[in-house]
Amino acid sequence: MKQLEEELGRDRAIEIETDDEENEAERVCHDLDNYDTESNITGPSRAHSDDCLNPDPSNFWPQSYRDSMDMFTGVTPPTVSFLKGSSFFLASEKASQSILPESSSSLSKPLISPLNSDLEIGCTSLPHINQPSFSEFTASFSDEQPHREKCTYTQSVLNAVNALCGIGVLSTPYALKEGGWFSIGLLFLFGAITCYTGLLLKKCLDSSPRLKTYPDIGHAAFGLTGRILIAVILYVELYSSCVEYLIMMSDNLSASFPNMQMDVFGIHLDSYQICAIISTLIILPTVWLRNLRLLSYISVGGVVTLVLVVACLVWAGVSSDVGFHPTGKAIDITRLPITIGIFSFCYGSHSVFPNIYSSMREPSRFPSVLIISFVTAGFLYAGVAVFGYSMFGEAIKPQFTLNLPTNLEPSKIAGWAVVVAPLTKFGLSMTPVALGLEELLPASYIQSTTMSLLIRTTLVFSTLIVALTVPYFGSVMALIGSLLVMLVSVVLPCASSMQIHAGRLSKLEIITSTAVIIMGICFAMVGTYSAVSSMGK
Fold first, then answer.
1. Separation of alpha carbons 230 and 492, rounded Å
2. Contact of 69 with 355, CB cutoff 8 Å
């Protein structure tokens, strides 16, 4: 307890700000006047609300978000271990040597640094969730998770490309088939829009040194309600991605073993259902891992796996009788919403961008990182879409790997590559969701290994139920893209930027952001309806 009090005392220490930092803090606080009132500040701190004292964002749920999402940008492989004792992650011997001063303390500082000693009184009375027990939990999580050094420019580009180039590439030929050849213009349009909104997120982060994550931006823009809403949307998006990983893995396994079937207690299971159950059991231990840095390291090879799958597609088209024969319709307005959903899914990486930006040695070069990664992803998606649709035409399936001739070596390589890929991606995507739920547990259960295992196991098996209920890879992807990604990557960045920088934006910026918001909402409504309607057809 004494040690905890000392740590809290250090966290509440006053930062000495320069004149520029004070002016910046005053400017930001002037625009965030609703931030303070929505935090329910009472007692002495209330008296200082007019002096621009904002609550520490790390005191509010989800406190584990930043560290859990940092795993998507990790490049150093550590020891692997499973949940044991009261700790979620295995402590690394070199953790204390690699923790940076900025990262080790930034989560415990207020959103806007106190400007004088009088304001320090307010910080000590800010409410947060299960303070005594949960502070120990978050401190344990931050201290035990190995922190890496700041990323170089090249590493940041690779992290951004790895985040953008995902399983959406498997469905771009199908999306082109649904919308027609001219719909490929939407792929580049969404790429340009989401790159722009990524830059808006950077601008929001720059408004205050206390903003580190997407939920922090939501907190600054819309108060505690905005923080919780954005966090929930991000967690649902991660959970939905896990469902897609499971469907993808099951589809490709069942394609390799199409005749597998069995009866269990009078219930008939076909090949897809059996493979879904097997895939779930294989994936489950990766969610139990205490230290996911090894999975994070391996998942960086996702770009290599992606390139391998694309190479197999081209290889099959060149070396087999399939060939390339462009046919099909120019545009299909009735099916265009499905195309919109899938193409928007391809650019759904904004939840990771704040972490990539914060991890850079040269944050000023983040715009070029975004531009390079979006251009790379855009041309990769477009190339696969054109190749796949040219090869299989109207017969193209939601995953082009299912169209590849089974007697060809490229088909076998591509099929097994997409089966192995979810083994690393699933655990990385599900762990932030699990940690977010574990934060909501009563204080007596926060560090319970049994409860942690129960929550993680329940989450994994719930994805199995969803994957068996809606085993439609393309429709689920279109639904995620239309509903969740459209909000996270299009609507919310613009709305947050307009709120945080109210009064300081040019007319062009206001008009552009408003137009993007309206377009995003319209596409979200139409795309969501079409995606739900297409399930089962």
1. 8
2. yes
Tens of pLDDT, residue by residue over 250-265, are: 999 999 898 899 988 8
- Going by the DSSP 8-state scheme, the letter that residue 262 receives in this structure is E
Closest CA to 89 of 41, 143, 49, 130: 143
475: pLDDT strictly greater than 70: yes
Please choose, from the candidates 535, 187, 146, 206, the residue with its C-alpha nearest in 3D space to the C-alpha of residue 382: 187
pTM for the full model?
A: 0.78
What is the enclosing helix (H) or strand (E) of 267?
strand 267-269
CB 345 within 8 A of CB 487: no
3-state secondary structure of 87: strand
One-letter identity of residue 226: G
| b/e 70-88 (16+ beta carbons within 10 angstroms → b) | bbbbbeeebeeeebeeebb
Cα(36)–Cα(300) distance, integer angstroms: 40
Tens-digit pLDDT profile for residues 269-305: 999 999 999 999 999 998 987 666 666 666 666 677 8
Residue 71: what pLDDT? 73
- Residue 84's DSSP bridge partners are 87
